[in-house]
User: Which sequence fits this backbone?
């Protein structure tokens, strides 16, 4: 086995560890999104604050993994004599021996599946939060707009009556 192949194998072994960390991070993010939606629905502000702190802490820890991945890409690019932008999992699958390529392909498939799931969970979370914001906006306007919504009520005889100046909160000081 040549020195270049041995060095590539060592770098790829480290890269596989980085990819394992990526998989764990995405799984953790999925669980955080589920927890975030549950806490928003429950309106548990204390737990939401704790979750946001945990998310910040995780992001700081994960930044090291990002740096490690970029370092691996640079090292592998110099080892294979190509540009850093060219080094991705598909490239490594093509240039490495079959056994190593199979391990990388397995990680790539797992990452792809998790990313698809993450996209769906993220979209669901965005939808929930936008609906909460829309509902809060409607509620806020109905409380503070002084009859500007042109509310129509009907009397006992079926006549339509427009209400004016019927806001729930009197904003005159």
Assistant:
């Amino acid at each position: 086995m040549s020195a270049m192949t041995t060095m590539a194998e060592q770098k790829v072994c480290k890269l596989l560890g980085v990819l394992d960390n990526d998989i764990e991070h995405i799984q953790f993010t999925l669980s955080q999104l589920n927890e975030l939606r549950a806490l928003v629905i429950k309106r548990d502000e204390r737990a939401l604050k704790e979750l946001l702190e945990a998310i910040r802490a995780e992001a700081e820890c994960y930044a090291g993994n990002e740096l490690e991945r970029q370092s691996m890409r640079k090292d592998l690019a110099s080892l294979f004599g190509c540009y850093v932008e060219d080094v991705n999992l598909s490239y490594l699958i093509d240039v490495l021996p079959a056994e190593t390529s199979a391990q990388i392909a397995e990680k790539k498939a797992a990452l792809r599946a998790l990313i698809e799931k993450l996209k769906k969970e993220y979209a669901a979370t965005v939808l929930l939060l936008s609906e909460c914001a829309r509902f809060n906006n409607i509620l806020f306007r109905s409380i503070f707009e002084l009859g500007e919504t042109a509310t129509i009520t009907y009397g006992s005889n079926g006549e339509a009556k427009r209400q004016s100046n019927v806001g729930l909160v009197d904003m005159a000081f």
